Amino acid sequence: MQKFPMTGPGLTSLETELRHLKVEERPAIIRAIAEARSHGDLSENAEYHSARERQSFIEGRIAELEEIISAAEVIDPATLSGDTIKFGAQVELIDEETEKQVRYQIVGLHEADIKLGRLSVTSPLAKSLIGKKPGDTVSVPAPGGDRSYEILTVRFG
Q1: Can you give the CATH number for the domain in which 51 is found?
Q2: E strands, 48-109, where?
Q3: What pLDDT does 40 receive?
């Protein structure tokens, strides 16, 4: 079975989503299907077909979350140290072209959210950062051409 590296907060977030789907969404969609059935002919009942599609999505997401959670390998970045970048590291970079500074934490695939500064360990940028130290420069392929970043800081915890 494939293990998924993940931070504690990332696992908690997935568990919360799973609980919400099971406790709130699943019963609500069952009620919606029962209501739509009471309206008669199911072959032309858009409410019924919509509710069934929603139920299929919810059940699929529940199964996906259960699989991810069962295979999660929680890694606590606070227990890590050093100056080389690895899973859980918080890195500060500067884009050498735009001089814009960015800060990311390298996290598991299923908890990544670039808008919140959580960079998937499987992303091209994270892959190029792993094993590097402050002062190193990395080049990352991007749709508009390669981007170069200088690593400013590396922290854990």
Answers
A1: 1.10.287.180
A2: 72-74, 90-95, 101-107
A3: 75
Q: For residue 89, is pLDDT > 90?
A: yes
Average pLDDT of the residues in 9-27:
96
Domain count, the chain: 2
CA distance 50 to 55: 9
Scanning the structure block, which residue is given the tokens 């360990």?
121
Residue-wise pLDDT for 104-114, tens only, equals 999 999 999 99
Which of 47, 74, 101 is where one domain is finished? 74
Q: Are residues 69 and 93 in the same domain?
A: no
Query: Is residue 100 within 8 Å of residue 34, measured between CB atoms?
Result: no
112: domain CATH number?
3.10.50.30
What's the Cα-to-Cα distance from 85 to each of 80, 123, 152, rounded to whole Å? Answer: 10, 14, 11
> 85 and 125 share a domain?
yes
Cα–Cα distance for residue pair 15/90, rounded to 1 Å: 24
pLDDT confidence band for 120 (50 / 70 / 90)? very high
Query: In this structure, what is the dihedral angle of CA atoms 106, 111, 116, 122, given to the nearest 10 degrees?
Result: 40
What's the whole-model pTM score?
0.81
